[in-house]
Amino acid sequence: MPEGRRMLERFGKLGDAPYYAHTQWAEEGKPKYPAGEQYERIKAADALESLASEETVTATSAGTATVRFTMPTHAVSLLTFDLQ
Predict the structure, then answer these.
(1) Which Gene3D superfamilies does this one have (predicted)?
(2) How far apart are the first and last CA of the chain?
(3) What is the CA radius of gyration of the chain?
(4) pLDDT of residue 1
(5) CA separation (Å) from 19 to 10, 32, 45, 67, 82?
(6) Is the model's pLDDT at 60 over the cut of 80?
(7) Is residue 49 within 8 Å of residue 14, measured between CB atoms?
(8) What is the rounded CA–CA span in Å between residue 41 and residue 34?
(9) E strands within 14-63?
(10) What gap in Å lies between CA 8 and CA 28, rounded to an integer?
(11) Which member of 9, 20, 32, 82 has the lowest number of beta carbons within 10 Å of its beta carbon?
């Protein structure tokens, strides 16, 4: 990462359901070939959510930055950095 200030966005899944799309698929009756609104509901259940407001982080001359946050067990988080 180039040295300087960068914008960070964090996305992920939080909550009790470990497999959101699978849970929605089961609620839809486990269709072999979901289509239309059924497919859209399953797809929407799999989307990542914004977990925090954008924040600014500072990268060092070595190209590193430290970001600290807490997550529940088995949660997944995607970090995106604006490198411009």
Answers:
(1) Glycosyl hydrolase domain, family 39
(2) 10
(3) 17
(4) 66
(5) 19, 18, 9, 26, 29
(6) yes
(7) yes
(8) 10
(9) 49-50, 55-59
(10) 36
(11) 32
